[in-house]
Design a protein that fits this description.
Among the domains are: about 5-90, 2-Layer Sandwich (Gyrase A, domain 2); about 165-270, no CATH class; about 410-590, Isoleucyl-tRNA Synthetase, Domain 1. Strands 7-6-5-11-12 form a five-stranded parallel beta sheet, with helices on both faces. Strands 1-2-4-3 form a four-stranded antiparallel beta sheet. It is globular, with a radius of gyration of 30 Å. Helix 4 (about 90-100) crosses helix 20 (about 510-520) and helix 8 (about 190-215) packs across helix 11. It has about 600 residues and is of the alpha/beta class. It has helices at about 5-20, 50, 55-70, 90-100, 135-150, 165-180, 185-190, 190-215, 220-225, 230-240, 245-270, 280-285, 290-295, 330-345, 360-370, 405-425, 430-450, 465, 475-495, 510-520, 525-530, 535-555, 565-590, and strands at about 30, 40-45, 75-80, 85-90, 120, 155-160, 275-280, 300, 310, 320-325, 350-355, 380-385, 390, 460. A hairpin with a 5-residue loop joins strand 8 and strand 9 (about 310). It binds one RNA strand of 75 nucleotides through helix 15, strand 14, helix 19 and helix 22.
Length: about 600
RNA sequence: GGCUCCAUAGUUCAAGGGAUAGAACGGAAGUUUCCUAAACUUUAAAUGUAGGUUCGAGUCCUACUGGGGCUACCA
């Protein structure tokens, strides 16, 4: 039981005794006490005034007196205006620390293999160009939410839906056939996704040139766009692909293979894995029969031209197309089919789509369509909508070449970390391999933390130059704290001091130590909250708070040179717990915790 | 035009309707015989405008101003 739950009960009992059962029924407002005031937890008394029929101060005092008299864990209280500040007994906190140190996986529930899973779909790239900064936010959010959801006690299935078909893929194929001279990742030494991406850009360049050419021959712009030979060729390639032409499929398969190999390398660098990868080339026909059925059931309607629609105007939305006049499906059709297929296959309890906020409308419609079709689990579909990542100059635009490439960015972060280590004299020339490994951990830690510490739903500005910062509220600062704790414990062990959960009895706990215990104690709660709100930033900021508190503690108190044995033991156990929790919190963010820096 | 999200120190981010709006970077000033100075300490600096609801509003409501997104028989 968390301390807050414990206090909820204790105070509810008190309030019931003083002011009657009814008054205790609405949840009490309990919060942690602000630093400026004495106390651990604070009860806000204003909502209780109606029941107590007394002034705020008097109400607080009554509750406080009753509480100290009847609840041994409550040591003392003070009243400031309508706020009752409660101080818990040091023995209470000593017990908490003991429990933490002796309970493996303190505060967490292991997911059961038979639980209905939470499916989390993220990344979902197109196979015509490499991943960019936007995908990085998506991938990091998806992975982190997966880990957080797991630690909150749910079974998670990570899913990637790769968009590997369509006109955009055909564009790269046509450009490669025309101008590629048989280039391959092997022959050029280029990463497959970058190679294919280059041809996608090349397509656009030639397309533009052909349009200009046609315009100079007297065509209008619209005519030129429709008649450019390279575009006609791409459309023809798509037709051949859909007709399963062997040569076309072959080339498509080869080039997609290059791209997917490239993606794998990026995922590996980011430490991201999927349990299942779906390909749209296999799923794009799903959903048609469902739409037909819905049409028969009168959920949808057909227009004169044969296209199928749903009318959502009663929900404040528009009418939405589900099947084209020629009977082919659109994005929405596929998503309907895919959702039904997944529910059948995986029996999920929840399904989270990690997709940017530009598709909020789409997912709103998807949920409503599922609901109208009579699927009760439409409520279990959740769109984790995150804000766009902008550059200081504004939006990323692929046409203007302002896109930040994922692989480039990762390399830049790692090499900057290496350079910093060099400048600070941390680089070990004896062991360059370890130094390189640490640089990678630190560079990736900086990148991941920088993205994840921001609330997903807000848009963010990413400044490539300033983001590589290793001071302040950053990943490396937290990693550094962890490394120092490891170093302290290592020295302690070398001196024959052991921290194996032997807590000193009757050891005085000072304020700063108390603060650390209280903060540690709140970790499971933070993870739960983070899972419920799908917000890794809560965990990120918690990790920073903890590291920050520990650093101050570290500078104010000696640990290894402490002469009082029981105080030293307390500090060592505390250090060990802080190290453990920091490691876990970083893990939830997908960040490694180095033991040396 | 319609729908929607957003607006907080110079900058990047915090703040479940609760106390004196927190951090960090940058600015100013300090701290290394010491367990890692990738650290710590001190300091100046903010809720777009106008109303409303409330004991109490950065948070809820209305209008305005400024910005993002959606509003495709694209995916």
């Amino acid at each position: 039981m968390s301390t807050e739950q414990f206090l909820q009960q204790a105070i509810a009992t008190t309030v019931a005794a003083l002011y009657g059962q009814q008054a205790a029924e609405s949840p009490l407002q309990i919060q942690t006490t602000r630093k400026e005031f004495k106390g651990d937890y604070t009860l806000v008394a204003f909502p209780l005034l109606r029941a107590s029929r007394k002034g705020p101060e008097q109400t607080c005092t009554e509750i406080g007196e009753h509480l100290t008299a009847n609840c041994p864990q409550v040591a003392e209280f003070n009243v400031v205006k309508g706020f009752l500040n409660i101080t818990l007994a040091p023995s209470y906190w000593a017990n908490v620390l003991t429990e933490m140190a002796t309970t493996p996986n303190y505060g967490f529930v292991e997911p059961q293999p038979n639980d209905a899973p939470t499916v989390i779909e993220f990344s979902s790239p197109n196979t015509n160009k490499p991943l960019h900064l936007g995908h990085i936010r998506n991938n990091l959010l998806g992975e982190s939410i997966s880990r957080i959801t797991e630690k909150s006690g749910k079974r998670v299935i990570r899913v990637n839906l790769v968009n590997d078909r369509g006109i955009h893929i055909c564009k790269s194929m046509v450009a490669w056939q025309r101008y590629g001279n048989g280039e391959t990742p092997q022959s050029t030494g280029k990463k497959g996704d970058h190679l294919v991406g280059d041809y996608y850009v090349k397509f656009d360049q030639h397309y533009k040139a052909e349009i200009q050419e046609l315009i100079s021959q007297g065509k209008t712009e619209d005519e030129a766009k429709a008649q450019a030979p390279i575009m006609l060729e791409a459309q023809e390639t798509l037709r051949r692909w859909e007709a399963k032409d062997a040569a076309t499929i072959d080339l498509w398969r080869t080039m997609n293979g290059w791209v997917l190999d490239g993606f794998d390398a990026t995922y590996r660098a980011m430490d991201i894995k999927f349990d299942k990868t779906y390909f749209e080339s296999n799923t794009y026909l799903l959903g048609k029969s469902v739409v037909q059925q819905g049409l028969a059931d009168g959920v949808f309607y057909r227009r004169d031209d044969g296209s199928v629609w749903i009318d959502l105007t009663s929900e404040g939305l528009d009418e939405k197309l589900l099947l084209r006049a020629d009977g082919t499906s659109v994005y929405m059709t596929q998503d309907i089919g895919t959702a039904i297929e997944r529910q059948r296959e995986l029996q999920f309890a929840h399904h989270i789509y990690v997709v940017g906020n530009e598709q909020e409308y789409h997912f709103q419609v998807l949920k409503l369509v599922m609901k109208r079709l009579g699927y009760a689990w439409s409520d279990q579909l959740y769109h984790l909508s995150y804000g766009m990542v902008n550059l200081p100059e504004g939006k990323m635009k692929s046409r203007e070449g302002t896109v930040v490439d994922a692989d480039d960015l990762i390399e830049e972060m790692v090499s900057t970390a290496a350079q910093m280590a060099q400048e600070l004299g941390k680089a070990n020339t004896q062991d360059p391999e370890t130094t390189a490994h640490i640089s990678r951990m630190v560079g990736m830690g900086a990148l991941k933390y920088f993205i994840l510490k921001v609330n997903p739903k807000s848009g963010m500005t990413f400044n490539p130059k300033e983001s590589i910062d290793f001071n302040g509220n950053t990943g490396p600062f937290i990693q550094y704290t962890h490394a120092r704790i490891c170093s302290v414990l290592e020295r302690a062990h070398a001196q024959g001091l052991h921290t194996n959960s032997q807590l000193p009895e009757h050891c005085p706990i000072a304020d700063k130590e108390l603060e650390l215990i209280q903060l540690l104690h709140r970790f499971p709660e933070t993870v739960q909250q983070s899972a419920q709100t799908h917000n890794p930033a809560l965990v990120a900021n918690y990790a920073y708070d903890l590291a920050n508190e520990y650093n101050q503690f570290y500078h104010d108190h000696s640990i290894l040179k402490e002469t009082n044995a029981s105080i030293q033991q307390l500090r060592l156990v505390l250090s060990e717990q802080v190290g453990l929790v920091i490691r876990r919190a970083l893990w939830l963010l997908g960040i490694e915790a180095p033991e040396k820096m």
